[in-house]
Amino acid sequence: MSALTPTQTLVDSTLLLSFCKATAEGLRLDILRVLSAESFGVLELCHIFATPQSGMSHHLKVLANTGLVATRREGNSIFYRRAIIANDNPLSDMTNTLYATIDRIALSAEVYDRAVEIHTERARRSREFFSRNAEGLRQHQNQIAEFEHYASSIGDLLDNEHILKSSRVLEVGPGDSELINSLATRFEHITAIDNSANMLDRAQAVIKKQLRDKVTFLHADIDQITQANTQGKHFELIVLNMVLHHMASPAALFASARKLLAPGGCLLIVDLCPHDQDWARDTCGDLWLGFEPSDLDAWARRPLARLRTERSRCLGPRRESYPRPGHLPWSQKRFSNTGSPVPSTHNPRDPKQQ
Description:
This protein is an alpha/beta fold.
């Protein structure tokens, strides 16, 4: 008689050995830490870790072969992020425990600073694009998602929210979309911000004369508004309409929005689903070719955001119909601030607060 008993699901010892070898290296653990909520390209990771491309590619290949990192093609570029582990993965318990342990590792000051440099460079490229291409940009953007095709959907959602007319509303990156007029018709106090002076000028040109007194235009990004909010004023509604795919760090937006949302307040995001139209990078300045709705939900759940998904809607054509002008698939998501506590002090290198 033996105390050993066979199990219904046997873990392949080769798979387990591969997993252990892949994670028995300090740099690979640091890579998994950095990729916990962000996506980076190979060259960006080389910069963050001051590692030659050949070495970084080797480490990423080892992690990918073990199923610990996933790739996503953004046009001609490939971005890496930490893989989501399926429940039926025979090493799911071990992997989730590894992830939880890695996430307790604080990033070194050097790694953190170089990751910030990547975001700063992304933001610089985006600002420069809009500074050069504000004129005629709307025509190009309409080839991706024309506002009139989804305006009624936004209107329906706002009708069902019962947000008071006197509420404070923030629109991030209004551009020359007609949404600013729709918001100013519904609400009395609108703040419109843009980090591009040229695009802010176009937003001011769009607003109807009778609605101008309701809108305050500020040349700033959402982080600057958060830092300047020393009096603790909050917004009942924050709106991003086809803006998230221009942001250097889409995941970080949710934490910034949480700081500005009133308890019970609503964050409304309308953006593209993943697509393969790489020309949007050059003609529209897109940093990201859309997002999986599940990614938005995951970013909203992070400790510094703790926003709850209330409503979600995905619309658009089947992939075989691309590229129909103005008809790329898009999603509309509504998140709420439930008032659950977030860390009172923020150490950006403390992974438990990310």
